[in-house]
Write a structure and sequence with these properties.
The complex is a heterodimer of chains A (280) and B (305). Chain A has 280 residues and is mainly alpha-helical. Chain A is 69% helix and 4% strand. Chain A has a two-stranded antiparallel sheet with strand order 1-2. In chain A, a hairpin with a 2-residue loop joins strand 1 and strand 2. Chain A starts with a helix and ends in a 5-residue tail after the last helix. Chain B has 305 residues and is of the alpha/beta class. In chain B, strand 4 and strand 5 form a beta hairpin. Classes of the chains: A mainly alpha (280), B alpha/beta (305). At the A-B interface, helix 1 and helix 5 of A face helix 2 and helix 3 of B.
Chain lengths: 280, 305
């Protein structure tokens, strides 16, 4: 039944026009970035490398597909959560607002199965969004800007990754980005269980992300104790794969925090959804 | 009644929302092949009771058994034998009628073929519109689609919560005929809620009336509505004289009330010509005689209140 129910949920997502806003948004933003980089990319690169030109000699094409992909992911990882929440925040509350929840919950499928299938559908949708992001940034970037070594600017200097040492870093980076977006999707889904309208969970999800990001970025000692436990702190964990050497402790800690958030949020969602009286 | 299987058994159902009590100690039974009318004014607790039977709302206390099994322990089994429309038939507006039915068929517990879906679309008169998105459907068309959805998995019990609300007269007749067809030809058990007594009277064989969450009366529709005692309303020119005459006659034991220029007597149908003759013989002009069934009058007063 879980497979049939998940298939139904995917069908609903596929037929809902709002599901394509996220994907279309990503494509438009990436297209704009690719266009801007093609036209004015060398100027942008000189801003980054300018401070090192006195001490380093750059040879070859720095502005290549790998750097473009890195820039795109860095820019988009802020916006994608909004696009994910836009779809997943509507999965339960949208049914309540439309009235279809009454029909759905009078079918011989347990509430746990329905919620779980919505969670799986959220994960699959998030995966498709990440796949689009990966394809547009990584594949199109390489197609338009060619291949080459990747130069990554860190707070303590530049790291240069050889061309044959990059693809796996992106793959793992996308994997951890997927996990962080699933956390956002789960948060939106959980909030969706508490609401009877679609807007509330979406706005609240963005509000929480914004609040946590502000707390995480403020250099105030009082927040030091909670900062490592905020999921927003670990949403940029994909960058750890562009460290040399890799800090596995950081990576595993980020994964653990994200998985813990998903588990706790799901537990709250299951509790609330099972207790919920359908009055709409 | 004894030889019929009990399909629904609700005992001492209570549902509280904080301090507000939506359903207070409601108990009733629905037997196989019944068309059971659930009657009450708006806000009486009909929908809450129906939603509780369908596990959409958790009861505060009381027991609900369907098909001889507890709803709490056998939810999925029980729901696989029920088809329902709760309040209004809401569907996924961005999907076509057929896609909506296919979607619900997939999780209805039985294997349902596309042919069966086509037959149902045909049965409810939506053929030719099955590929259209539900967003373009009228209320009547959605109601028909709701009926098709209800029958998808060939359920034994059909629960229709106010199915005629918002329908045009022809739509109401169609739904009524459909319910009777389901009872008579397909041997289904139907629970139908309504706030219109005449609607229940036409199709139900048993009914319950609830108000403010409490059971007021329940039993066979014919026994409840066609009992011997009725209210006869005589519109007369001299009410005081008419009242005096009745108090002096053999009707002095009947409950008599005055209302403007009318006199209301709780009596039987046989008494009407006798009372009329009494008034005429005593020069009281009777301009109209109207009969009301006691329960109907009671229910109308309930609705008006």
């Amino acid at each position: 039944m879980i497979i049939k129910s998940t298939y139904n949920e995917l069908l609903k997502i596929a037929y809902k026009p709002r599901s394509y806003i996220g994907i279309a948004g990503i494509m438009i933003i990436i297209a704009i970035i690719l266009f801007a980089m093609k036209v004015d990319g060398s100027f942008y690169i000189s801003l980054i490398t300018g401070q090192f030109e006195q001490s380093l000699l750059f040879e070859g094409t720095i502005l290549n597909g790998n750097l473009i992909a890195y820039i795109i992911i860095q820019m988009l990882i802020i916006h994608v959560p909004l696009l994910i929440a836009f779809v997943t925040g509507d999965l339960i509350s949208g049914e309540s607002a439309m009235g279809t929840i009454r029909l759905l919950l009078t079918k011989p499928v347990s509430r746990n199965t329905i919620l779980l299938s919505k969670f799986f559908a959220s994960c699959i949708y998030t995966f498709i969004v990440i796949l689009c992001l990966a394809f547009m940034s990584f594949v199109l970037g390489k197609l338009f800007f060619g291949v080459g070594d990747l130069i990554v600017l860190k707070s303590d200097g530049l790291i240069v990754f050889q061309e044959n040492d990059i693809t796996w870093r992106f793959l793992y980076g996308f994997a951890i980005a997927f996990l962080s977006l699933v956390t956002v999707a789960t948060l939106a889904l959980t909030l969706s269980c508490f609401s009877e309208n679609s807007i509330g969970p979406i706005v609240t999800t963005m509000g929480i992300i914004l609040l946590f990001t502000i707390i995480g970025s403020m250099d105030v000692p009082v927040f030091d104790t909670i900062r490592p436990f905020l999921f927003t702190t670990h949403m940029a964990a994909w960058r750890f794969f562009f460290d040399d050497p890799l800090n596995m402790t950081h990576i595993l800690y980020s994964i653990a925090i994200l998985v813990a958030h998903i588990s706790v949020l799901l537990a709250i969602a299951f509790y609330k959804f099972n207790k919920k009286d359908i009055l709409s | 009644m004894e030889n019929k299987a009990k399909i629904v058994e609700v005992k001492n159902l209570v549902k509280n929302y904080g301090t507000f009590c939506a359903v207070k100690d409601v108990s009733f039974d629905v037997f196989e092949n019944d068309v059971f009318g659930f009657l009450g004014p708006n806000g009486a607790g009909k929908s809450t009771t129906i939603r509780t039977i369908l596990s959409l709302i958790k009861p505060t206390s009381g027991t609900i058994n369907l098909f001889g099994k507890s709803l709490i322990d056998n939810r999925n089994f029980i729901l696989s034998k029920i088809g329902c429309i709760v309040e209004k038939p809401d569907f996924y507006k961005y999907l076509s009628a057929q896609k909506n039915l296919e979607l619900f068929a997939r999780i209805s517990g039985n294997s349902i073929t596309k042919l069966k879906i086509s037959e149902l679309i045909d049965f409810v008169g939506l053929n030719g519109r099955e590929k259209d998105k539900v967003s373009g459907f009228s209320h009547g068309m959605k109601q028909r689609l709701g009926i098709a959805q209800t029958l998808l998995h060939n359920p034994d019990l059909i629960i229709l919560d106010e199915p005629t609300t918002g329908l045009d007269p022809q739509g109401i007749i169609d739904i009524r005929n459909l319910i009777l067809q389901l009872k008579n030809e397909k041997n289904k058990t139907v629970i139908i809620s309504s706030h219109i007594l005449s609607e229940i009277e036409l199709i139900a064989n048993r009914m319950i009336i609830i108000n403010k969450g409490k059971t007021l009366v329940q039993g066979g529709v014919s026994e409840l509505l066609n009992s011997q005692e009725i209210i006869v309303v005589f519109k007369v020119d001299t009410v005081d004289k008419a009242l005096f005459l009745l108090q002096q006659s053999s009707f002095s034991n009947c409950e008599i009330t005055l209302q403007d220029s009318s006199i209301l007597i709780h009596t039987s149908t046989d008494s009407i010509p006798i009372i009329n003759k009494l008034f005429c013989d005593n020069d009281i002009n009777v301009s109209s005689i109207e009969t009301k069934r006691k329960l109907e009058d009671y229910f109308l007063r309930l609705i008006n209140n």
